UniProtKB/TrEMBL annotation:
The chain crosses the membrane at residues 20-43, 55-74. This is Uncharacterized protein. Pfam families: VMA21. InterPro entries: Vma21. It comes from Tremella mesenterica (Jelly fungus).
Length: 92
């Protein structure tokens, strides 16, 4: 009887790795730019120099970016062209 060892390394189909990496880079940039931009723009144009509401707006913006990333990740998993590869069952 031959026992195969699962190494934990599965080669994804071509294009999957780069798409995931680009989405991660995009959302990392958004997490840096959107809250800071929201804070300073709402500080100057919306709340007239009041820092507390501007900070709350920046927190809401950061959470919106995070929720967007989670939604994109779940939609990507749901529309995956290749089903996940099941692990081999151990034989006794």
């Amino acid at each position: 009887m031959v026992n195969t060892v699962f190494s934990g390394k599965m080669a994804p189909p071509n294009g999957i790795q780069s798409a995931v990496l680009w989405k991660l880079v995009l959302f990392a940039i958004l997490m840096a730019v959107v809250p800071i931009g929201t804070y300073f723009s709402s500080l100057r144009f919306v709340f007239g120099g009041s820092t507390t509401p501007s900070a709350i707006a920046a927190i809401v913006a950061a959470n919106m970016v995070l929720v967007g990333y989670v939604i994109v990740a779940f939609r990507e998993e749901a529309h995956s062209p290749h089903p996940p590869i099941p692990l081999e069952k151990k034989s006794r």
